[in-house]
Specification:
Mean pLDDT: 87
Structural class: alpha/beta
CATH topology: TIM Barrel
Radius of gyration: 20 Å
CATH architecture: Alpha-Beta Barrel
Number of domains: 1
Largest sheet: 6 strands, parallel
Strand content: 5-15%
Order of helices and strands: HEHEHEHEHEHEHEEH
Number of helices: 8
Length: 266
């Protein structure tokens, strides 16, 4: 056998061993955070990629339930970090960006049907605009167990702003929510998944406790709470199989120690 063939054979065995390790080694411990946007029967063409139809969403929740997952809030996660509560065996956080009205009309009833909770990140200057949540809907969602977070005032990438405007987007969006009857806002979602090394200190200064990125992976008690990783869940093209693969991707990234920074439009 030639040296080249021996080398290729060794490489094949190595790749096979790595694949088997990824598939059959125990799943890493950690909190999964899923990133959704809309749950609706139909949406505009521009929003198609971000929409999970209700029946697909129900299938995903059925799967999570069958696998023993329990939904928690971002505040639950932080309480556990500080020893103030114990998390369930397989915790998961469902998050929804932007604050679309279908989060109230379609998503909320489904979550109540399954006895699950979620976190909704709203763009405060879109509240009350067509197709977006209004204040009454937000307050009712909160009263029915939904955690409300900030997605800034205008949904512009923070990394493209000067320091003062960053401060305004982070601080004023939080204040506006709280002034209008939303409980203390503790959690934040970076618009477009864009952040830099200054963001954790800025959010801590403004009394946020957590922030979510667009990077895939699981979150442990050692994860920087201002750089929490999420699994993006777009419109399903391959049904439940795609959903399972996306969950597995987060496990793989965690096993391999990969911390990917994605600049995704959210």
């Amino acid at each position: 056998m030639s040296r080249l063939k021996k080398w290729l054979l060794s490489l094949c065995f190595l790749l096979l061993a790595c694949f088997l390790w990824l598939v059959f080694s125990p799943a890493p411990e950690g909190v999964s955070v899923l990133e959704y946007h809309e749950v609706a029967d139909s949406v505009d063409d521009d929003a198609y990629i971000y929409n999970v139809p209700p029946e697909d969403f129900r299938q995903q929740l059925d799967y999570l339930k069958s696998q023993g997952y329990t939904t928690i809030s971002m505040l639950d996660y932080m309480k556990a970090r500080h020893g103030k509560m114990e998390l369930p065996a397989k915790p998961i956080i469902l998050t929804f960006d932007d604050g679309y009205e279908d989060n109230y009309t379609t998503l909320l009833p489904i979550l109540e049907e399954y006895g699950m909770k979620a976190t909704v990140y709203v763009i405060t200057n879109q509240i009350g605009q067509p197709d977006y949540l209004n204040w009454d809907e937000l307050r009712d969602m909160q009263n029915r167990g939904i955690e409300i977070g900030s997605h800034t005032a205008n949904h512009d990438p923070l990394t493209q702003m000067d320091a003062q405007r960053r401060e305004d987007e982070v601080r004023l969006s939080k204040l506006l929510l709280e002034w209008n009857g939303i409980h203390t806002v503790y959690t934040f979602s970076y618009p477009n998944g864009a952040f830099d090394e200054t963001m954790p200190a800025l959010l801590e200064k403004n009394q946020y406790l957590t922030a979510v990125t667009g990077d895939a992976g699981l979150n442990t008690m050692a994860t920087n709470p201002y750089l929490m990783q999420r699994v993006n869940i777009p419109h399903p093209r391959f049904g439940l199989t795609e959903f399972k693969l996306r969950l597995w991707k987060a496990e793989v990234f965690t096993k391999l120690g990969i911390h990917q920074h994605l600049e995704e439009v959210q």
